[in-house]
Amino acid sequence: MIPGIDASIERKSLLGAVRAHRAELALSLRVTVAAVLGFVLSRAFHVPLPLWTVLTAVILTQATFGSSLKATIDYLASTFCGSVYAGVLSVLIPHEGPMAQAGVLALAVAPLALLAGVRPSFSTATFTGVLVLLVPEIAHVGPIESAVYRVIEVAVGALAALVVSLVVVPTRAHSLLIEAAARMLDRMAQALPELATALIEGRDPVAIRRLQDGIGEALAPLESLVMQAGHERIGLLATAPDPGPLVRTLLRLRHDLVFLGRACAGPLPQAVSQRLGSRLEQIAAIVADGLREMARALVARRAPPPLDAIERSLQEFANTCAAIRQDGLMLSLPVEAVERVFTLGFALDQLRQHLRDLDRCVREAARRR
Fold this sequence. Notes:
Elements: H1 3-20, H2 22-44, H3 50-60, H4 65-92, H5 98-118, H6 124-139, H7 143-167, H8 173-200, H9 205-232, H10 244-263, H11 270-300, H12 308-326, H13 335-367
Helix pairs in contact: 2-3, 2-7, 3-7, 4-5, 4-6, 4-7, 4-9, 5-6, 6-7, 8-9, 8-10, 8-11, 9-10, 10-13, 11-12, 11-13, 12-13
């Protein structure tokens, strides 16, 4: 091996690995900085137990700012609830001996655990209540002091987590959502020519289901990302466009491809395929190119190309379908074949409308860049 070439290859391989795991590396950096910042702030504010501040900062520093913000709100609310309840209970009910302590512990844990079961966002309340009751035995402080210190420790750790999530290599849920939406559009673009071929020549049903499952897998991450993006739309992040219309439009496009898949139970009758085959291939190619252009425009935050070519191809298909009905070709077909032809027409008509909606969403995202 030539040393210079070998070193260049290793550098490229290392850079490729860094790019492939940049999200994980960014999260690792944020968690590390949050832990150190939480420790520094706990010392600056003279927090009695820096351990809880650092742990809170680590726990609440998550993949995106939106998820960190949601986790922080839930964590603070459940901590406050658990601290207040356990602190008041500890003051009102004497618990000097082990049996009395066990009884108060049960009275504290039972309702907080029920609350966490009913409202998962309060899952930390039970843990906090236990700490407030038992830490005084270790730190030699009163129950009210224990509750107050617990809230302060969590608040300082939460502050560290939010600052780091917002400043250090910030990852926005909205950006991840846009990238996920673009990947879903690419999946749809890959599936369309296969579906057209299945309508003309026939395809293995397992392969068709695999295509549909791939699109469904691409849709799955969008549901959690849209919630995280919603939490980010506060303060200085409120200018980001609402991702709801985009995600709903993608879901409708997904349903359109499901209808197309149902029409692919078998090849179209020969009499219909001779008239529609070339139209279907043309539509699949043009719409697939349009979806890819939409994906690129979405990621680049720019306006997509006009839908003129897609509109023409779908209108020509509709005209051909109308001519087939006028010529009476549908009268001699089995009921099952007629149903599949009508399903195909309905799916493409819906696809046309939803592509217009997608075009509006992409243009809005470019306008709100």
